[in-house]
Amino acid sequence: MPESQFTLKVFRFDPDMDTTHRYDSFTVPLREGMTVLEALFYVLEEKDPSLAFRYACRGAVCGSCAMHINGSNRLACQTQIVNLKATEAQVSPLPYLPLIKDLVVEMASFYQKMDEVQPYLITHKTPPEKEYLQSPRERKKLDSVTDCIWCAACYSACPVVWGDPEYLGPAALVKAHRFSVDSRDQGGMERLKATDSEEGLWRCHTVFNCVEVCPKEINQTEAIEGLRRRTLKRRLGWK
Ligand code: SF4
Ligand code: FES
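# FE2/S2 (inorganic) cluster complex -> structure
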């Protein structure tokens, strides 16, 4: 095979027609900078219009195109073929999420967990006339955790989620942490109901799979540890 081509092996399953899944192989002409998402588009447009996959922004912003690529959860639009350092790419849906078709999974359980931690600013006082002010130092505390794009790569990679579908999972706990360190937020007690529970932050086994796969380089384990410390302080009445 010429160097300018590579093989894309794509997981296929159509619940209306198939009883089991299979992998279809496609030869894709490689061009400089080509991403896995672009290779999937090539297959869709040139080889098989029935292929199903999700995408929206094509720029690592919307979180729609997370999938399992050569053994790791990644964003298809962020993964350049050349960086896989392999002659072929095997693409599967995110593991442990219910399958809808081909590379498309059901995200409802993930979104429900995110909703449980109330991922928005909660305030109990009358809002200021213009805007909530925050010092640069206060804002800096959010830097490492504001970038989550809800892609579920970490959720799908977490062995605790695999064994316990009720566990909130790393992304929801990162979101709870993100608001717990926000100087404008007053929803700490409300969120504790979800996070300080059997299925919440004490369930994390610090496996670090989440940290390895996050396309935004968020350190979920560190965030969960921070949330644990603040929760203990609350329990002891220090905060
Ligand atoms: S924490 Fe990272 S891996 Fe998890 S949902 Fe957010 S962006 Fe995706
Ligand atoms: S298409 Fe939006 S993150 Fe990949």
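# post-check
Strands lie at 5-12, 22-29, 66-69, 72-75, 88-92, 99-101, 104-105.
The radius of gyration is 20 Å.
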